[in-house]
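A note from the maintainers: we've had questions about how concatenated examples are separated. There is no special marker in the raw files; a new sequence line simply starts the next protein. For clarity in this README we add a label.
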Amino acid sequence: MFKFIVKLHPEIAIKSKSVRKRFTKILTSNIKILTSQVDEHAKVHKNWDNITVVSPSSEQHVRDGLVDALKRVPGIVQFIEVQETKFETLDDIYQEALALVAPAIQGKTFCVRCKRQGSHDFTSSDVERYVGGGLNQYVEGASVKLSKPEVTVKIEVKNEFAYIVKETHFGMGGFPLPTQEDVLSLMSGGFDSSVASYLMIRKGTRTHFLFFNLGGAAHEIGVKQASFYLWKQFSASHRVKFIAIDFEPVVAEILENVENSQMGVVLKRMMMRAGSQVADKLGIQALVTGESLGQVSSQTLANLNVIDRVTDTLILRPLIQHDKQEIIDLARRIGTAEMSETMPEYCGVISKKPTVKAKLSVIEEEESKFDFDVLNTVIDNARVMDIRDIEKESKEEVKEAESVADLPSDAVVLDIRSPEEEDDEPLELDHVEVMHLPFYRLATQFGDLPQDKDYYLYCKKGVMSQLQALILHENGFTKVKVYRPE
């Protein structure tokens, strides 16, 4: 049997009784949904100060699955994995602790810490002294050290049960979904929009995804995969939508009619107009962007001010004060970095000298030259889908990029990881030629390779190689597959 005790987020615990009750009820429901996907027999019980998850299974993969699921539930800061025992005497608690923690404290310094609830003829300090003294005496090489020990043995006593903590796990924190209103994230698949979407999910908002397609089918496939990953990892307890708008006609209209230095700000205002209309149709109150102050020319205070004036819809920017490296580091932590690194960059509008201090009157004058029928048409043709359908659609779309685990003798493997990754973990295969060609050079250098051979793209997780294979297929290089060793 596996048992976990989910501690309530401090920000939930300090709220009013009614709000705390509502948040806890929602969190319990989300935990039930996600843990049932791992173990249909798992039981989830809501208490006033915690939530317990109990699985009757003894299989390690079930335990690992439950831990992974709980780590990805918004609203969980930490949870403890415990061994539950019913006791009558302090010695019962000690014997259980001895059997469980002896290997962990052998030859190390340790201390015992106890929290107690209920009516007992002993105190928490009594438990700490009794159990600590016994462990100190009977575990070889173990010694008590109350200040900064190597191991802390944690015990919680509640009425007639004692819970010996086997391991403490940390979750993503934030608020349960959906304790806040829905938002619509403007998703490009890059570092910024992916991290911004994650932060809003973490804050308890059901986050839908809006993609402005400027780069064709390969770009859309990549953004769909990134959006699906974020949903599957962090908000799979609730349904969300993915919306795609073909924005190339809008870009073409801007390039033809708008003065060069103003194009970037005008493009952003067109996106906000479109996003606002889509949000209104879906009953969503706010847009989310990955903009960070000063990161690029369109993200100065002056330009953001002009961009925001195009709509009454609330625009949220969770990354506004983050540095780029901070964003990349967070992307790596949540698992979106590799997808973002491989995402095709199609900015669509590149100004030679973009304005950094846009003036509303000037922008509005430029927009008067724009044919808004073009914008209205692409909005009307927006494609709305349930994000759960992306997985099925993605499998159908990538059938041409075959994945193999066994290579033929005449195969050529292209390791498309970055030079840093390749240096850290070189790919060496017996009797198979391996070439290193970073993903960002594929577009310009793949055509120079002999085209009478079959090439197998390799990266660590397969996401990058799958996307790059699709891009090469689109460009006419059909003898490209993906190498996925088991």
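[label: protein 2]
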Amino acid sequence: MINDIYPHKLNNHFDGTAVPKSEDTVLSFREGDVLAATDDAILRFPKVSDFGGNFEYTYLFSVDEERFFLLNESAESMPSGYEYKNLRGMRGKYPDQNREMYAAYTGKHIADWYCDMKFCGRCGGKMIHSETERAMKCRNCGYTAYPRIMPAVIVGILNGEKILATRYRVGYKPLALVAGFAEIGETIEETVEREVMEETGLHVKNIRYYKSQPWGIANDLLFGFFCDVDGDDTIKMDDNELSYAEWLSRDELEVPAGNISLTNEMMNEFIAGTSGNV
């Protein structure tokens, strides 16, 4: 998965005293795009030294000894050899660069939150960065806001030797699994039951946790579960959410290329015959 970057290690501890140096890496985002090298053969981000003039940066995190800073405004004049590229479109293009992709996804998550926190949701006052923690504080009323993380589920529904494969109505087009966001007041297991019922009309049992994954491109924290269909296996697909939902055998299931997502890993677990052991 994208966060499997061992032996590298992400350190997202906030450092309000960090001052950008010429060798530090810069992440810059513009409407879902990230500033990256024009050479598609390798994913590479600019350094502070690539920018001329006066720019403001916010410390993001480090990966090993490499420090990453957010360019607070998108670059109007881009450094030579760099351009804004669609981050979603990069999925699967750099299978050997999970480290760089993970940095970009995580940076986008933080950048989105900073963008949304310019003004206080309680009084409308201007928000400023906390000097001691990753938080935004209102100058007017003192309200403190912390990074927003949205919990969601990925569900592998098993029916004997078959799994329920889906395609989203909008957005990502390859085969996927049932997925959805948790709602206020429900447990993550209740989210599994509700999302499966809403999207497919199925009841499930034996809900068992598999693994989690941060998914910064959508500001999510994904929780993967396997479960078994309970009773009638007739699919009643929600046409507003899905364009396809079918029971597929191991031989029929086509897993999208790449090792970036929890969904892909879970489908490969099913093909390997190990999902039932979770």
